[in-house]
Amino acid sequence: MTACQDRKLRIYDSSREKFTLKQTIEAQDVGWSILDVAVSPDGEHLVYSSWSDSLHQVSLLGSEEKHVALPFCPDDRQFCIFSVSFSCDSRELLGGANDGYLYLYDREANKQSSRIEAHEDDVNAVCFVDETTHVLASGGDDGLCKVWDRRSLREDDPRPVGILAGHVDGITYVDPRGDGRHLITNSKDQSIKLWDIRKFSNSDTIEMSKQAVSNQRWDYRWQRVPKHVGNSRTRLEGDTSVMTYTGHTVLQTLIRCHFSPQFSTGQRYIYTGCAAGRVVIYDLLTGKITKVLSGHKSCVRDVSWHPYSAELFSSSWDFSVNRWTGVESPDREEQEENAKTAQSEGKRRKVDKS
Q1: What confidence score (pLDDT) does residue 334 get?
Q2: CA pair distance 78, 31, nearest whole angstrom
Q3: How far apart are CA 7 and CA 173, in angstroms?
Q4: C-alpha span between 32 and 42 (Å, rounded)
Q5: Lower Cβ count inside 10 Å, N or C end of the chain?
Q6: Which residues lie closer than 8 Å to 290 by C-beta, 6 or more apart?
Q7: Distance CA 328, CA 294 (A)
Q8: Phi-psi region at 256: left, alpha or beta (left = phi > 0; alpha = psi -120 to 50)
Q9: What's the pTM?
């Protein structure tokens, strides 16, 4: 499935090693572009967002293409949902908006159920952390990733259960591992960070992160990465992230990153799009780049690894979607390194036996 600035959502069948267009959906009430799309876990509906006070829901099973508006109640006149996510039971929608708020929508009651003051700037990414739907995470242009527990959350006094601080520029995406403990964030500081949400940041680190973000004087949408950002490898004091991954470029748009599938890879990898037209795959444990997929001529905004097959799909600003196969196999350099490691370990075993 793809979404484009021409206001169309296109659904393709890729099962026979080629793209066959199955359905084209003409989006409604679109301001500038479709910003995000989510498909319900039960596979029955999709929801898309734009510069609009409403999300729009479309049925994927019926023969009739029916758009249903899901209205929100924002204060701002110019409003958009940058990120939208379904709960695992498909009953609720979570949205992150340009007014700094999180929005929860009850699909069964067909109304907004919560509006949570969350960030001091745009909320670029939201997610349900686990299947219970109690725990939420959000990332914003304030550089912070906040974790919320709905069981203790009050709309009149919204307080996160913890904050993850370590980035020095805005967060573009948040992806949960699904174990209720770990998530990753992509950032305009040109890094991905792996977090354990059992270890939050202290107030000093939070303030240092906010200060670092406020000191940024460049715009990732049309400027190149400044040298002081691209060359910086200094870890923010008190950064509680487990690992930091660098080697991709975050420019032009809210580039996304993901954990690789559990079934086929055991979530061994982290993969991301890149403004240089590449797909970059990192080893989760070592932080090293294991594979770079080059072929696009412009920014790769999003990437999707098939949950069961060894194939990956990337969408780019060059108006193309690419299908990659064999993505779980290491590059030649990694194969040579693994061979050397195995050889040295074999020698050690011989020495130990003697």
Answers
A1: 52
A2: 10
A3: 23
A4: 30
A5: C
A6: 269, 281, 282, 283, 330, 331, 334
A7: 15
A8: beta
A9: 0.90
Residues sharing a CB contact under 8 Å with residue 71, sequence separation 6 or more, in sequence order: 53, 54, 112
User: Which tokens is 57 given?
Assistant: 């829901």
Q: By the 8 A CB rule, do 180 and 224 touch?
A: no
* Beta-bridge partners for 139: 125, 145
With a cut of 50, say whether residue 59 has pLDDT above it: yes
Q: Which residues contact 161 (CB under 8 A, 6 or more apart)?
A: 147, 148, 149, 152, 200
**132 secondary structure, DSSP code:** T
Structural tokens at position 65: 């293409």
Rounded CA-CA distance 74/53 in Å is 7
| Share in percent of the chain as helix, strand, coil (round to 5) | 15, 40, 50
What is the residue whose two structure tokens read 């393709």?
A: 12
Distance CA 37, CA 18 (A): 23
Place of tokens 């994927």: 60
Q: Which two tokens stand for residue 199?
A: 């270890």
User: Which amino acid would we find at residue 237?
Assistant: E
Asked if 174 and 133 touch (Cβ cutoff 8 Å), the reply is no
Confidence of residue 336 (pLDDT cuts 50, 70, 90): low
Structure tokens at 319: 């108006």
Per DSSP, the residues of 328-339 read TSPPHHHHHHHH
How many Cβ atoms sit within 10 Å of the Cβ of residue 3? 23
H-type alpha helices, the chain: 203-214, 227-230, 262-265, 332-353
Vertex 82 angle, CA 219 and 254, to 5°? 40
The DSSP-derived string for 23-86 is EEEE-SS-SSS--EEEE-TTSSEEEEE-SSSEEEEEESSSSS--EEEEE---S-SS--EEEEEE
Q: What is the pLDDT of residue 353?
A: 41
Cα gap 34→70, rounded to integer Å: 15
Confidence of residue 66 (pLDDT cuts 50, 70, 90): confident
Q: Report in angstroms the alpha-carbon separations of 261 from 1, 7, 177.
A: 18, 30, 9
